[in-house]
User: What shape does this take?
Amino acid sequence: MKEIDAKGLDCPKPVVLTKNALKENKEVITIVDNEAAANNVKKLATKLGAEADIKKIENDYEVNIKKTKNNKETDQEKNEGKVYFFKSDKLGKGEDELGNVLIKGFLHTLLELEPLPQKLIFMNSGVKIVTENEDALDSLKELEEKGVTILSCGTCLDYYGLEDKLNVGEISNMYEIVENLNNSNVITI
Assistant: This one.
């Protein structure tokens, strides 16, 4: 069994260390100092087909991971569908009011596409769309209901003080975001 002390490490370091340890070990324990990091490590383990559980021990979190026999990424996880990457809460540069109108229209128009995008990823001020933009929320919820994965950068949510205001989708981490961008047909907004 391999034990990783990832307390105090910035995202995505705990995830990367865990992934590397799982290449050579059947059991890994990763210790982190916050719940978001623990959830990110658990998400990685689950994605790789391993069993994982989180235990809170005083101020830290211990993620216990055990490999199962089938630890390959599925074809679905390697899907090369379109991924839209939102790096701002506005569409285009210029007047903020126009940028808000355009982002609302863009997200609503995505609902009309065939096929729908595989994922929407929100980073930097783009996370304000999934937390503060009430005009875009209905379209985002409908996209999620239709199977579109919506991921938001946890570090970005934390930076803007929005981690408790996520209205749609799930909190992600830098490793997962970069992996998705690397394995997909990406359109940057």
Observations:
- The two ends are 43 Å apart (CA to CA).
- The chain has two domains: 2-66, 76-188.
- The longest strand covers residues 51-57.
